[in-house]
Structures are given as C-alpha cells and as structure tokens.
Amino acid sequence: MCYNNSMINRRKTKEINIGNVKIGNGAPISVQSMCNTDTRDVDATMSQISELTEHGCELVRLAVLNKDAADAIKELVKRSPVPLIADIHFDYRLAIQCINNGISALRLNPGNIGKRENVEKVVSLAKQQQIPIRIGVNAGSLEKELLEENIPLSEKMVKSALKHIQILEDLDFDLIKVSLKSSDVLTTIEAYRSISQKIDYPLHLGVTEAGTLKGGLIKSSVGLGTLLAEGIGDTIRVSLTENPVEEVDAGFQILKSLGLRERGVNFVSCPTCGRTQIDLISLAKKVEEKFKNLDLPITIATMGCAVNGPGEARHADFGIAGGIKEGYIFKKGEIIAKVPEENLLEKLEEIIIKSYK
C-alpha cells in the first residue's frame, strides 16, 4: 500500500514510463537502488533484485561494463519482478545490446558515447522501443571545458545537463530523465533548483558518494529532503556505502517523513529521559523489527513512560508506554491494556491484527 498525504505542491513535469512505473507528472515518487553484484552473475544479481523488491524497491539499476554483462540483461529482464535500468558508459554498442535484450531504461550521457552517428543509432532504437534515457551528470566527471569555466560548480553541472539534453532533442527524442549529483549537499541542491527552472523533464534525485550508513543518511536526508519539500524530484536513490536494501528503506523513510509516500508502518518513539522505567532503546528496536513488514498505513509509538507517553503520542494509532517491568498499550492516546514487559509485543500485535480483521 502507498498513500500520499502531503501538502507539498510538486513541480509539474512531462511523464515517462520505465516499464510499468510512471515517472513525473504527479506520479508517486519512485524509490530505486542499484545492484552491487557482478551483472554477469545472473543468480547473484537476481537474488539481490529479489531482496530489493521485497523491501519495496521499484526500479533497479545494473552496471553494464562489457558485452557479457549486456548478454546477462536478457535473462535478468525475464526474471525480474521490477523494471531494470542499464548503466552505460562510453560504449554505445552496450546500450544497443541492452535495448535489444529488453531493458526498460538507460542511464548514459549521449556526449560520452562517441561519434554522433553512434549516438543516433542508440537514440533511434530507444525511440523505436520507447526506452527512456536518464542523463546522469556527476560533479566529479564533468567535461574539461566546463571545469575551466569560472562559474559555480552547480552551474557547470546544469550546463553539462543542458548540453546533453540538446543532443537528444536535436534527434527528436524527449523520453528524458535528468540527474545532477554531487557529493556536496549544497551544490546538489543548487544544481537541482537551477535545472528545475529551465526544463520540464522529470528529475532523479540523489547525493552521490554520500558515504556510509550514518553519514550518508544525514547527507541524503538533508539534500533530498530539502528538494522534495520544495516540490522538486520525481524518483530518488539514497546512495550509501552499505547493503543496497538500506538505500530503499531510507528512501521510503525520507518520503514518508514528508507525507509523499506512506508505505507500511510509521514508527515513532520518544528520546530516553530520567522518567523512563523500561529499556526503551531495546524496546523501540524490537517494535520496529516486529512490525517492519506490516503493510498497513498506521503509526506505532514506543514511549518511555505512562505519565506523558500516551498523551504525547495521541496521534499514533497504537503504542506502548513503559512502566516498571510492565507496559501500557494505548490506542489514539487512550490506555487499553496493562501488560507484563515480556508480553508487550505479542499483545500489541494481537490488538493491531484484531483491529484490522
């Protein structure tokens, strides 16, 4: 289930389709990730695609480094439950091979795949097969002539994107999605703000090379959260040096915090304080683990004490307030059960399931 309760006025864009996933023009902001397996290893890659899909991932990107990887795309497309995107650099033949093997979209920069005739071959086939192309600009790999210009880095990124867009538009191709990623949060924000005023193509958001789990989450939350709150962005990837599953979970959490997607349970918990009479940190983690796969649009709260907990979390559909070796289960701020600590999770689950039968 996915719900949208946001008051955010999203930027209007053209709509493209990546497989069965709509991007732009008010469609739900999609969450994507990228496999870190060797694409040539079909079984390992398929295993990771399946795991990502179980966590809600809607689009999966694959690195296509050579002909063998492009060959593997055919079987992966056949077995994948979600649309796949081929990440191509430099070799136009790999893009053609991936299109012929059923890929749903490409990520490439048309200016980086050689002669114009090669670009025309890729674009002609993509247009024929209705395969969208994401122009992916990265601050760390800009064209040399742009690097030498005395303008802010964010504007160099925008100029690069516009140049690549022009190549596609000159070939009468408009199934375009654009990203402008930097490892610097403010540069990323400024680049997306600028490009959003200049084009109406959908935008893929991300802070590249954001880092490991903790630091990367903070950078991505600030960068993506700022842009999304301004109505900018149509699909996202939270880039982390971590299991890609963490990227998907983080992506939905960011969207959920802004009311842009409501997938599964929303968890809230209070910080610990001197009034807490229960192991709140452990309990909150257990509650999240217990109900992480419950696909209901509800809020579950874990609060440290019965004095303030139910009242402070009266917005929650259900919750636990800690006591001394026991806890209180509440619903919309009203205490409905007093339960020994060791039985709290089971009783909470029983009450929730009963309420939705």
What can you tell me about this protein's structure?
With 357 residues, the chain is of the alpha/beta class. It folds into 2 domains: 16-257, Alpha-Beta Barrel (TIM Barrel), CATH 3.20.20; 266-355, Sulfite Reductase Hemoprotein, domain 1, CATH 3.30.413. The chain is 40% helix and 18% strand. The protein is built from 12 helices and 15 strands. It has helices spanning 42-54, 67-79, 92-100, 116-129, 144-147, 153-170, 185-196, 213-229, 244-257, 280-291, 309-312, 344-355, and strands at residues 16-18, 21-23, 30-34, 59-63, 84-87, 105-107, 133-138, 176-181, 204-205, 235-236, 266-269, 299-303, 318-322, 326-331, 334-340. The strands form 3 sheets. The protein has an 8-stranded parallel beta sheet. A 5-stranded mixed beta sheet has the order 11-12-13-14-15. Strands 1-2 form a two-stranded antiparallel ribbon. It starts with 15 loop residues before the first strand and ends with a helix.
